[in-house]
Write a structure and sequence with these properties.
The protein is an alpha/beta fold. The protein has seven helices and ten strands. It has a seven-stranded parallel sheet, with helices on both faces. It has a three-stranded antiparallel sheet with strand order 4-8-7, covered by helices on one side. The protein is globular. Bound molecules: 2-amino-2-deoxy-6-O-phosphono-alpha-D-glucopyranose.
């Protein structure tokens, strides 16, 4: 595991975007695994700037997103479909037919998960998987549990995740209670993984996830077993790590 310590959030965002940009330059038909949450927003802004400068071409890029809230329509500005369009897809020349997220409006959860597994299979292994880190160590929406779930599944969000994400909704009651998420097995199949983390409030979980025991109670800890992980984290997020 490679850890890149950055000065602050902006520095983290630039460095993470540079890594993704290099991947696209080296392999224009790259399969990107994409993440949502507040942390990667700056990374996406830098990628959009790279595209606007003419340095980046997304025309052959394919993407698979980690997760989607169950029951939120695409038009809802808190859906991850909306997020991806609002922060990246609508500003670059990616072919929308090559972008994929779980279908949050598919009520039949078994069908939703099976369909997304088929999509992941068809798109192929991610060349680079971008990840944020939840306060409880979740990646995608793989919440702490008894075992690492391998494939796409429907998850009951923990109270701590609902609390953490309520800032984006009118109230905690409005936060969906379930989500569809890519499994840990699929995340681990990515050729390279890039984790972005920022802020003092993540310092404790950074230490646990990347320097503590590997356990499904801290889902991100499994990344210690992956052969090519880069963590780009700012000083505040790394403040408990020597
Ligand atoms: C969300 C997403 C994750 C994200 C995490 C952290 O719930 N499902 O993919 O990494 O929480 O979010 P943030 O970056 O806003 O702290």
């Amino acid at each position: 595991m490679r850890i890149i310590r950055t000065k602050d959030y902006n520095d983290m965002s630039r460095k993470a975007a540079n890594i993704i940009a290099a991947q696209i330059v080296l392999k224009p038909d790259t399969v990107l695994g994409l993440a949502t949450g507040s942390t990667p927003i700056g990374t996406y802004e830098n990628l959009v700037q790279g595209y606007e400068k003419g340095d980046l071409d997304f025309s052959q890029v394919k993407s698979v997103n980690l997760d989607e809230y169950r029951g939120l329509p695409r038009e809802n500005d808190q859906s991850y479909y909306y997020f991806m369009h609002d922060h990246l897809f609508k500003y670059v020349n990616i072919d929308l037919a090559n972008t994929h997220l779980p279908d949050g409006m598919q009520e039949d959860s078994q069908k939703a998960c099976a369909e997304y597994e088929a999509v992941i299979e068809a798109v192929g292994r991610q060349d680079l998987q971008l990840l944020g880190l939840g306060h409880n160590g979740h990646i995608g929406f793989n919440e702490p549990c008894e075992e690492f779930k391998k494939t796409t599944h429907c998850v009951n969000l923990t109270q701590s995740t609902i609390e953490a994400n309520k800032r984006f909704f009118a109230s905690a009651d409005e936060v969906p209670k379930q989500a569809y998420t890519m499994g840990i097995g699929t995340i681990m199949k990515a050729k390279k993984i890039l984790v972005v983390v920022s802020g003092q409030d993540k310092a404790k979980i950074v230490k646990e996830a990347f320097f503590g025991p590997v356990t499904p109670q801290v889902p991100a800890s499994i990344l210690q077993m992956h052969p090519d992980v880069t963590v780009v984290a700012d000083e505040a997020a790394l403040s408990l790590v020597k």
